[in-house]
Amino acid sequence: MANQMNRREFLKTSAAVAATAIVLPQIVPSSVFGADAPSKRVTMGFIGVGNQGTGDMRGFLQDRRVQVVAVCDVNRESKGYWSNALGGREPARRIVNEFYAKKTGNTDYKGCDAYEDFRELIARKDIDAVETAVPDHWHAIPVIAAAKAGKDIYGQKPLSLTISDGRAMSNAVKRYGRIFQCGSQQRSDVNFRRVCELVRNGRIGKLQTVECGLPGGTPDYVGNNPSKKTEAVPEGFNYEFWLGPAPQAPYCPARCHVNWRWVLDYSGGQVTDWGGHHPDIAQWGMDTESTGPVEIINAKGTYNKNDLYNTATEYYFECIYKNGVKLAISNKLRGGVKFIGSDGWVWANRGSHEASSEAIKNAQLGPNDVHLYESNDHFRNFIDCVISRKEPIAPIETAHRSITLAHLGNIAMILGRNLKWDPDTEKFVNDAEADAMLSRPLRSPWRM
What we know:
9-stranded mixed β-sheet, 30% helix, 448 residues, Rossmann fold, alpha/beta
């Protein structure tokens, strides 16, 4: 028991622990797992288990150092997720219990609890780390609460709904000394790391332009053209809690579960959905992970014109950096990230990379060259860092600076004009109208 307590204290150094008393789950005896006993693992809870959260949870289950003990979702169980799949807290709980039942041979295993309210999960003192995979308008409040409660956090991208939310989250993680990994998993892809290293080491000459090609449109992820008409809230779905800090709105199937990202009250469309991926890689290669552009120019967006979806379906904007480098982000560019320099170019997308010449593509890096953080498994990297207390490959401040590009682009497109930005103060230059869009009011009683 002494060793167990020492480990818990180690994982929660400098953290405040929530005071709410929660009944702990029944955990099978250590003898069932032997060296893999729950007391020797990083215990995890998952907040938001409809789409990405369930997929991530399955990934973490494969790590023998992890014990999943709780799931949370405002939806008990229903279809309506990716490809109209089944999702919610009860399906997720079944996945966990069935996994450990098979692993241990204990067919009655029931060690995973399910919650509707994330605050109950966060209040559990036996949980070391949480994942948050909820709609964007719900990212900041649980992350800040988890940091205060001494939990390490794996947070799905995009990091934030607004620039102010991102700053508040990053500050909280730093203040409470927590490990935070953003789900920008492309940083754990060797192809993206390779091209960023080539750029950072000058193999394409002086960097001039970067192009990020992202998807456009508003695809129907459910696959059955969900109704935009107001309906009664389904049994088992706490819709009021789902809305949370967002404005009051009538329930309709197309608003929730998966297509929510096409509504500006909850997300920023494809610009922010993919803004946590390719623009993040652009910042990595440009060596601007702790800063940002000074101007956003030539922003143009085409928007949905229906009774619900209102995010940009087509978009283009340019981010101009202090050193003169131009970063273009658009659904009209080739998918992936292309770095263009005075001596050539390199390009990467998931699973592959290219260069303007074989000499550039095959360039060798020496011991004195820049070698970027190497991770080949995003989930394992997070657990490695929970144990070691080292910074993960996608830390929160980096994620905040990356998604800021997408937020700046959306603001410039909505306002329809060029903007000057101060990356140090994170304010627009002499533009009160634009500054007012850095944050959103929170609906009572929610606050950060």
